[in-house]
Amino acid sequence: MxxxxxxxRLAGHQPLVLGLFRIVLGLLFTSEGAATVFGVLDRKAAPAxxxxxxxxxxxxLVCGVLVLLGAVTRGAAFLSSGAMAFAYFTExxxxxxxxxxxxxxxxxxxxxxxxxxxxxxxxALSLTGLLRRGASGDTEAVPASR
Length: 146
Prior knowledge:
By secondary structure, the chain is an all-alpha fold. Helix content is 69%, strand content 0%.
């Protein structure tokens, strides 16, 4: 099989894979927020109003749910990406220059993953796409680039 044919076959699955990536990223981010705000998943809750941890937890929880559902994905991903960049540079960078060294691997991966969603959109299986299809009465899938 030539690489051109393989590339064409894979390209047809991009919206679905992007949608699955968005769902997993949103679920992981939501779990981080729930752990911080509510003290679940073997983590102690941050006290309400505690800067910056409680506020970061609220952003993670709310934006994580929005990304998971595929609603206002680009905006939620933009805010999430910025929050993770802020977390990395204010909380982790002071402990060393590299994410493996300073415990900042999660914020870096979240930051870049959300930045990807800002530019590529929600992909398939999004609430926004479902609502657009329902409003237009169209049974065809809405392109992921919208």
